[in-house]
Amino acid sequence: MTSLNNLAVYSDYFVAALLIGGALFMLVGSWGLAKLPDFYTRLHAPTKASTLGMGATLLGSLVWFSVQEESLHIHELVISIFLFLTAPVSAYMMGKAAIHRRRPMAEGTRNAEEAERAAERKGINDRDD
Amino acid sequence: MNLIWVPLLPLLGCLVSLLLGRYPRSTMALGAAILPAIALGIVVSLAPEVMSGSNPVVTYDWVPALSLQISFMLDGLALMFTLLILGIGLLVILYARYYLSEADNAGRFYASLLLFMTAMLGVVLSANLIQLWFFWELTSVSSFMLISYWSHRSDARKGARMAMTITGAGGLALLAGLILIGEVVGSYDLRTVLASGSLIAEHSLYPVIVVLVLLGAFTKSAQFPFHSWLPQAMAAPTPVSSYLHSATMVKAGIFLMARFYPVLSDTHLWFALVSLVGLTTLLVGAYTALFKHDLKGLLAYSTISHLGLITLLLGLDTELASIAAMFHVINHAVFKASLFMAAGIIDHESGSRDMRKLNGLFRYMPYTATLAMVAASSMAGVPLLNGFLSKEMLFAESLHQETFGSLSWLIPLLVTVGGALAVAYSLRFVHDVFFNGEPIGLEKTPHEPPRYMRVPVEILVVLCLLVGVLPDLIVGDLLVAVGASLMPAGVPEFSISIWHGFNIPLLMSFLAVLGGVALYRQRRHMFNFQARFTEVDPKLAFEHMIQTLVERARSVQLWLDNGSFQRYALWLLLMAIAAMSVPMVNIPHARGSLEVTELDMVALGGALLMIVASVATAMLSHQRLLALVTISVVGLVVSVAFAWFSAPDLALTQLSVEVATIILFLLALYFLPQKVSLNHLSPGRIVRDMGIATAAGAIVGTLTYAMLTRPFDSISSFFTENAKTGGGGTNVVNVILVDFRGFDTFGEITVLAIASLGIYKLLAGVRLFVPAADMDGRPWSKDSHPLMLMQISQSLLPLALLVSAYIFLRGHNLPGGGFIAGLITAIALIQQYVANGVVWMRDRGDLKFQWFIVWGLFIAFASGVGSWLFERPFLTSWFDYFYLPLVGKFELASAMAFDLGVYLTVIGATLSILANLGKLTTTDRPTRPGRRS
């Protein structure tokens, strides 16, 4: 009984740390979305920081409910899988769209000419080589 | 035999006629006649019962709560009309056998004729007001088909349209009148209405009821000023004219007046209205008949005149007037039907109906001429024939009436004038056609018709004579029975006999004959005078009126329905505001008795977000993609709100619907202009629209507030209490959907299926402008299916299907169910279309969305029908708990099969809308068969 109580206490700390960490990452992500100079850099904030924050929060939820209900909760795991699969792809697609539309880049972006070439490229199926 | 067979047998005969379409004419006529003949037999076998004063009734409940029944009753009045309808109908069937030419489709003719017979029998036998009206309109419809039987002729089509419009409009007035009667009496049952005594006459709505019912009767019976359709209906084949336009249909209005005579008449309004209209019709009809050169035209106007005579009798406030009216109904039907048949024979055997050409036919067709002369004499009111008797009764009754006070003496005078005119046109019919020199310019030499074509005329003429000589013996008892229907309080003693001694009516008859002969002799002067009027073709006048009306209607419609969505939204909102504001003003306080929940930051934040997003959507509406983003914010907040207020099912549904809707928007936006300017909008319009939107928002907001702050007691507690015990599920929402209100859901998925099929039909073959570049002129990226998106989407599919299966299976007890699962599956599949393209999907097994719908509906239906096997009502659900090793205890419910049907239908419907819209840009677009493009 005591060990279970101890587990609950330790898990509380763990969950709290995960939630605070997750919230921090999400805050950073939102901050970045507002503050970063151009579209391409802004894309990093929600896709990287916020996804990580979300993952931490989900993990916290998983631990908390698993301990509380004394059975393994895998819903959050499924949500995380979906999230980790879809977030990069949406970022990728948005980046592609931005390059296609030739969104302006911040001063000093490295390899800016690569983007120009990517936009010029005719597509994956009819490469002009 | 049961009374219901009387109208039912001719209806079956209608089918028989259609089936016998390829057999020889005689077989067909026999087949058409057999069932009505049986019906006539039934009526005759029931006649003694009716005569003895008891009325056979059959009643079947249909919707008892609305007092709707299928109910037939045979009383004296109905008996008389039934005998006329069936008797003359049979004669007309025999006559038409010879009348129709080889080129005519006799099967269609007999079928329409028998349909009309059914309708007419239904009118006279109905013991329920609404049912009576149904058959009343059926007579209009079937007569339309009969008048336009020779549909290649313009006059037939125009005449049919005119008859249909006028009698149909009258029918609508009648419906209003009947409903009012039903409201006043409290029942649509005819017997209750007839037994209500003076209830209706003393009601404040009485004038309205009388006018509406009479409008129905007057239009049907071609009373002035609604008479002009009847002459135009003469474009019909003569058997039709003889049956509908002399013997039966035009008498339906008379029947109606007689039917309600016990409860509606006996007021000054009735007498004044009915007698004046009747008298005018009598004179106008008789006068016009005199000048018609067309044989059938003369008969048509004479019919109008005689109908006016009957109406006049029904409007006279004397004891025996209504009996005389009913007697004349019989007499007129008999002699006029035979005259029409004779006219048809003349037309058939000489090729013309023009009395200026037809002369001296007595030499060519002596038998027919004799028959026609007897019938025409009856029409003129010559003694020893039936027409004389009822005309004498009219003269006698006209002397006794007192409706018009000191001016009452005018009535007998005018009636005598009408009688003289009748003598004159009858004389013209006989003299012009059968004597008066030789035929002029006929295409063929007239001769006698086939033997059996004359038989119906002979029978009718013999009846003229029999009734004329022995009236009491032939129709006396019948008229007493009819009188009992018209005067439930008691029929006064009357006797119909040829000789009443020298009295004033006899003098009037004598004067009428003399006057008629004089008029005919002096006809040249009258014709000259009449020629000074400019003749208006009522057909063309009517067409002109109708076309003007249609044009006006179209311009109104174009103003209301101009194809602009904004206009529709405007009307809808204005109507809603108008309908809601009055009741809202009448609610004293918006806030009800319930405690207001305390404001919390989460709800407030959500509300603010939603408000901001809504306003942004409105303001950004011209930047469509951006507006789509803001509106999806609204949708997401709504989903979260559902979850927040403990409605997880709604939240899930809202979320998946939201996704599907956004995809739909995106697909549609692709074809729409990318940039819209608002500069063309006038500031006045912007102010107007904002005003309307604000008013609508304020009203809906207040209404919601008022609803939420009032205690709401609905049947939902029943669902909550019985979901587990009755439906075997703890998810009340799902149990309601698939069990308690499964029938509703079944209807809804059917609607969904129909809607998606409709959209498919709209999309099929449509060629939309496919933009080659975006709004800045940038061509689309050629990399339409990036590898990464393809790969990830493919790997997502099984996961998404797993989730949807999970949501489906747990639906009965936890949030989820077939609808949500269907949407998830559909979205997952759409995702594949988006990521991989139509061609890729087609190569991996083309999904036939229609089959999803078909199977979905079938499974849902089958799971409902399944409960019949266990002798339970449709869609009764069954559930039980089972135990399997490894899986544990689980539940099986028949509702799950139903839910599977919902699931499949939703997938099919969603995909067939979204995927087909997406396919529009590809070569796999939906096409119409045979027009593959």
Can you describe this structure?
The complex is a heterodimer of chains A (129) and B (933). Chain A is mainly alpha-helical. Chain A has one domain (2-120). Chain A is 78% helix and 0% strand. In chain A, α1 packs antiparallel against α2 (39-69) and α2 packs antiparallel against α3. The longest helix of chain A has 34 residues, at 2-35. Chain B is mostly helical and 933 residues long. Among the domains of chain B are: 267-521, no CATH class; 598-671, no CATH class; 731-776 and 783-933, no CATH class. Helices cover 70% and strands 3% of the residues of chain B. In chain B, a hairpin with a 3-residue loop joins β3 and β4. Chain B is elongated, with a radius of gyration of 37 Å. The model of chain B has no long low-confidence stretch (mean pLDDT 87). The A-B interface holds A 78, 81-82, 85-86, 89, 92-93, 96-97, 100-101, 121-126 and B 778, 781-784, 786-789, 792-793, 795-796, 799, 803. Chain A: Residues 110-129 have a biased composition (Basic and acidic residues). Chain A: Keywords: Membrane, Transmembrane, Transmembrane helix. Chain A: Pfam families: PhaG_MnhG_YufB. Chain A: Residues 101-129 are annotated as: Disordered.
> What is the average per-residue confidence, as pLDDT of chain A, rounded to a whole number?
83
- In terms of DSSP E residues, the strand content of chain B is under 5%
| Low-pLDDT segments of chain A | 122-129
Beta-strand residue percentage of chain A? under 5%
How many helix segments of chain B? Answer: 37
Strand count, sense and barrel status of the largest sheet of chain B are:
2 strands, antiparallel
- What value does the Rg of chain A take, in angstroms? 21 Å
The number of distinct β-strands of chain B equals 4
Sum up the overall morphology of chain A in one term: elongated
* Uncertain stretches of 5 or more adjacent residues of chain B: none
